[in-house]
Every structure is written in C-alpha cells, then in structure tokens.
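User: Structure please.
Assistant: Input sequence and predicted structure:
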Amino acid sequence: MISKLIINDVEMNIGVKFLEDIASSIPDTESNQVIFNELAKSKSASVRGYIAYKDKLSEETAKLLLTDKDSEVLSNLLRNDVVQSVATDEDIEHMINTLTEEYLVNLIGYLDDYRNIDLDLHLENLLSLNSPVINYAIADNRNMPNKILRKLSKNEDPDVSNTAKESLDY
C-alpha cells in the first residue's frame, strides 16, 4: 500500500505510524467508507484494527475485515452492527478459531446479536473447547438458549454450574 498526503498540490509519502494516526482519528462517517475500505487492506494490523472499530463500515469492508487473521482486529468488529448483520457461520467459525480466550469471552457477549448465524452450533463449538473461562462466560449470559444453560448447569466446575442455574432462574 502506497500512502500519500496531498495538500494544495504538495505531496508527501507517509509511513505506517502516520497512517495509524490517520486511521485512528478519521471521522466515523458514511462519507469516509471508501477510505475505510482502502485502509482495511493495510498490511498493518494496527491500522486495520482502528478501522475495524469504526461504526460506519460498508458491508464490503465488514466482510473484508471478517477474514482478518489478527485477533485484535476481529475483536474490534464484535460490537459492530454491520458486522452483526453480514457475518456468516463461516465468519463466526473463523473468529472462534482465531480469537484468544479473552476475546472469545467478548464474542460470547455479542453472539446473540448476530442475525444470520446458527447460535446453537457456535455455542456447542465454544463448549467443545473445554475452557472453564469460556463456559463461565456462556453460563453468565442470560440470553443464551435454555438448552445450553441446562447443559452448563451440570458442569463439573461449581462456578459454571451455579451461574448457569442462576441464569436459568432469571
């Protein structure tokens, strides 16, 4: 990616640090969607991460960023409404395989907001990781399906099972 700044026909090449500053401070407006898409193609995960945090992404940019291999970039997408409307089961599977445990906990907090996915499938995939931290995050989310919460209410970890029971009783 070649990045240039042009002011009154004066042109200069800019490096990655300057590009990071631009990506972090560019206004989050629909009129900037074209530049967001270009910056989402950057080799710098930091630049892509700043763009992933924007609310006004186009569907094209959201789909591009959903394929990212960087955990922080993907994590920054989790709360985005456009992402939640375009993400597929394959995208969620990619997230589950890419995100760190900490970011998977964040994903669990938003997973029921995704509109075009098989929630039960992904919760089962998360449970198959056998992570007490992930199991607890699912159990602690009262928006999870009762079937999943009942399963967790029998978990060997008392914190997980008790929290799942509380979520069921809510």
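The two ends are 52 Å apart (CA to CA).
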